[in-house]
Fold Signal recognition particle receptor FtsY.
Amino acid sequence: DKFKSGLTKTRDNFTVKVNNLVARYRKIDEDFFEELEEILIQADVGFQTVMGLIDELKMEVKRKNIKEPSEVQSAISEKLVEIYTAGEKSPNRLNIQEGSLTVILFVGVNGVGKTTTIGKLAYMLKQQGKKVMMAAGDTFRAGAIEQLEVWGDRVGVEVIKHTEGSDPAAVMYDAIQAAKARKADVLLCDTAGRLQNKVNLMKELEKVKRVIGREIPGAPHEVLLVLDATTGQNAMVQAKTFKEATDVTGIVLTKLDGTAKGGIVLAIRNELQIPVKFVGLGEKMDDLQPFDAEKYVYGLFS
Ligand code: GDP
């Protein structure tokens, strides 16, 4: 199971520690909760989320009259899933328009895995029988257009591009005309990952979105922010900045296979109220998975 093997590092760090904790304690007391708190913080679950979780666990222990530390384990899993899903049925579902063109915009800083994610998602959608196209909207970074083309070739998807340095909004306009003409189902749009200047970032994204929305009312249907899980709290800072710059509808958390601190998924969801729609669990074409909180949490503890 890809999901499970991709989480090996987090399982080795987090789950093993929780298991040890539960085995060491005879009764549930303040010390037990303090150690649990520390383990959760170290797994990057995030301070705010950990505090809420510990409070709820304490209440649960009282309410259910739990005496054995081993019984707390299932309560921890339940609470983690609860925090994540927050009452929503399928927060991870993509907003795909059946029978008309769906436009998905990708945002995020350089190096987080944006291009790779676009390639992987193109592959996944193609496997589902959809006609997919890509727009090379990162006209700023040297090599970005070529890199997207490599993925386009690999997956067998057409890439619409202009030359380096050209206006990304013009690329989007052309890509939409081409996607309409070819009767594509989904257009995946790359953007430049400049974060140094928030005002510029905001302006560029606004213009791109305006052009897309003018050609297709209601589009872009998704704005997916790509974040690198291995950067921990730095990813949280990026998420906050992008959330201020544009309406982010979902997150793709990459390189979850490369971190022992997979708790960042929960922190993002809980502190930013943005659903994690996909996770990256490797560098290959089929290493992108829709994020499923239950599978994730129970995968950690099984
Ligand atoms: P971009 O600058 O945001 O477009 O980033 P790239 O797509 O070029 O990715 C940067 C590096 O991260 C590349 O070496 C990718 O192979 C690698 N990468 C992307 N996603 C994942 C992932 O989920 N897991 C691992 N292990 N590596 C990844």
